[in-house]
Design a protein that fits this description.
It is built from 8 helices and 16 strands. It has about 325 residues and is an alpha+beta fold.
């Protein structure tokens, strides 16, 4: 008997006298095929089971609770009573919506909507809102160590004067503002609009810190603005070359929320020499030495979330 499949692989020469099939000249035992068919449902079940290492916080698709609370610290906590930011609003558009990272504490939602509206009134185009928090906060499997309690938001320096298409929304292209090796900002792409974005956010009493590239902070310092007290909140940090990371203070009266230590007084411009050295200094190459056996590094202590987060995580 002879069988020919319609695909690229032809099955031929089934021999009733011999317990095998021939796949393009390769003999395959029929008992082996039968065993594989029996095992398929089991394999499908195993692959459908959630991984032991899967991030449970990322699996949650809805917020929990009515009373809002930012529980824990910015880099180790969760969010109760979070709200979703509408993906389109006056003066802003949310990008990368498929990540489901557009949730926040009600105070963050209020800040974003008011902030975007004020920029719009000043004549700016729509700003782009990137990562906030997940529906119930918690830690991400990639991208951030913070953004866990609904009080952090990434705002791109790029703006748009039109409604984004689905592709533009989910796969946005950032501005290449920073030349790290030269420790310089592209002033053809950076304008007064971006400076005003940072200044307006920093002057808001709800804002605790704004993280930007040290190159951006240096540029803002070099402007020699007369009243530059707002620069105190603008903190240099790795990355953040095309967006600013705005962080709010803990909401008043929320005893579950832990603020960061206060920032030292001053505009912080005298802190930038170290950063410039890190970016521009060429490290001398060292001659290769024979590798010595190294002791295994001690595993980092696993962060333990506040007890309230167990309730937030387990709730339906």
């Amino acid at each position: 008997m002879r069988f020919i499949s319609k695909g690229k692989v032809s099955i031929s020469n089934y021999d009733a006298n011999h317990d095998y099939l021939v796949f393009i000249g390769i003999k395959v035992s029929l008992p082996l095929i039968k065993s594989a068919l029996i095992a398929l449902p089991l394999l499908a079940f195993l692959f459908s089971m959630p991984s032991v290492n899967a991030n449970q916080w990322e699996a949650l698709k809805t917020p929990f609770g009515n009373q809002a609370s930012a529980i824990g610290s910015y880099a180790n906590g969760c969010l109760q009573g979070g709200l979703a930011l509408p993906v389109n609003g006056q003066g802003y558009q949310v990008i990368r919506t498929q990540r489901q990272r557009y949730y926040g504490h009600p105070e963050l939602i209020e800040f974003i909507t008011q902030y975007a509206m004020e920029l719009k009134q000043q004549g700016l185009d729509d700003i782009l809102i990137a990562d906030m928090s997940m529906p119930r906060g918690g830690n991400f499997s990639h991208g951030h160590s913070s953004h866990q309690i609904g009080l952090d938001v990434d705002i791109w320096f790029k703006q748009t004067d039109k409604r984004l298409t689905d592709t533009e929304r989910e796969q946005p292209k950032p501005l290449k503002l920073v030349n790290k090796k030269q420790f310089a900002l592209d002033t053809e792409l950076w304008s007064h609009a971006q400076t005003n974005m940072v200044k307006l956010a920093a002057e808001d009493k709800r804002v605790a810190r704004i993280f930007v590239s040290p190159v951006i902070k240096q540029y803002l310092c070099d402007l020699k603005i007369t009243d530059d007290a707002w620069l105190n909140k603008v903190r240099p940090w790795w990355g953040h070359t095309y967006h600013m990371h705005v962080r709010l203070h803990c909401p008043s009266g929320d005893k579950s929320c832990l603020n960061q230590a206060p920032i030292a007084s001053g505009n912080g411009c005298n802190e930038l020499s170290w950063w410039k050295q890190q970016y521009t200094q060429i490290q001398p190459s060292k001659p290769k030495e024979p590798k010595k056996p190294q002791a295994k590094p001690k595993p980092k202590a696993k962060k333990v979330k506040p007890k309230q987060c167990s309730v937030v995580l387990a709730a339906p």
